[in-house]
UniProtKB/TrEMBL annotation:
It comes from Promethearchaeum syntrophicum. Residues 17-112 form the CoA-binding domain. This is CoA-binding protein. Signal peptide: none annotated. InterPro entries: Acyl-CoA_Synth/Transferase, CoA-bd, NAD(P)-bd_dom_sf, Succ_CoA_lig_flav_dom, Succinyl-CoA_synth-like. The keyword DNA damage does not apply. One of its GO terms (molecular function) is succinate-CoA ligase (ADP-forming) activity. It holds the Pfam family Succ_CoA_lig. It comes from the Archaea. Keywords: ATP-binding, Ligase, Nucleotide-binding. The keyword Metal-binding does not apply.
Amino acid sequence: MSNDKIEEDMEFDLTPIFRPESAVVVGLSQKNPFHPGNAMFTKNLMEMEVKTYGVAPKYKTIEGHKIYNSINSLPQIPDLAILAVSSRHTLPVIKEAAEFGIKGAIIVGGGFAETGKEGKKIQDEIVKICRDNNMPFIGPNCVGVYSPPVLDTLFLPSERMTKPKSGNVAVISQSGGVLVDQFFINFAKREIGISTAVSVGNKAMINETHLIKYFEKDPKTDVIALYLEGFNHGDGRNFCINARKSKKDIVVFSGGRTSAGKSAAGSHTGALAADNSIMSGAFKQYSVINPETENELRNTLKVYSMLANPFRNYSTMSIHGDKIAILSVSGGHGVLCSDLLEKYDLSLTKFTEKQKDDIGFLLNPTASKIAGLNNPIDITGSGGNEDIVNILEYLLNQNNIEMVLILIVPQVPQLLMTLGRDIVNLGNKYKKPIVGYVPWTEKFGLIREALELNHIPCGNTIEEAVQMAAAIKLKGEGGIRKKFSHNSL
């Protein structure tokens, strides 16, 4: 039986890695204050809840803190060992940790399978020791785990980091750089919260399938996001099968989509980058959402993190994407939005003559004379809050409308800053999706904040709003496939 098959079949307790009560950082330096080990030791000692020890054979203290000369000399058996040593020193440290009874490890150093045969040999020996001692580890060649408020092994200085708030999205990234940049910075900008983040690196023992199984049971996680450059041999199919079994939304942002990207991925983490068209097809078949751009990734995760809230308890499985209504105070915004719907496989519903008459009747006398009553609806700059609220409520009551995109141009003087609250009241009353657009300027923040704080998605650009609408449709399609799959088991 191959090691790949053994790892696939084994279940690991990952609690000591993600929620340890105690940890030891092995590999510190008095000469180099920027050494990864120093950053992790100080950060966890001063900022996180985990009880933290340091090990360095040459030193008794570092920056005034007591340091032990070996793992065996520690006053207790920690739950977790964090290794910040070179590849040639990793093997003896792992042996010592396993013999001491430590329950999990994170190996941040590189120089293993991603470098060639010699590195792969060392990596395989580490896997055997850890498997024999039931001591799962993350890595090697990674930045490790951020699990607020317990643990932070991201070895970048805190003052250089942008960290998102705590929330309900778990992030699994094959690249530490992508984790702290594309995920952390974008999450902070759009106020998407993280439950746990993990950089997996070479995935020598714990891979993405083990992690989605762990986060499937994690009560703090509603959405699982991944950045993957490829799968180790035999892991792709197992991942897809477990993703489809999951009751949580799984979103994969892929690297290695081109021949140049595949080559770079191989030297980065040693992953086998599959053909992009094959993987995209497999992800769709197995209900994995696979956004193509950073913006789509961010907007998809923003929407899914919101839809996990019980206030937004409509069924996305009723959303097919072909019955969209657009409500705007600007004809140009409606045109741009209509173009984008087609790009994201969405389409407008066609109003009946009666619906057009009804909409016109709901408008104030000035706006009704000049408004565009087709879909998209253009109530013009003569429309105000009352017009928008009346028409929005009418649209939400129509059987041939499954979702409403409302394009708010707050520069129109008749629109009051209470509009966000008015839309929220309707969103709470009717069980249909509303997606807003409000331009990203500080002076209109009250409208945007009212929507987002009440879990109504709101784009900063028209395209962001359309991407959010598309994400709702994709969530529904995935839910249908999962339901069909579960019923077939």
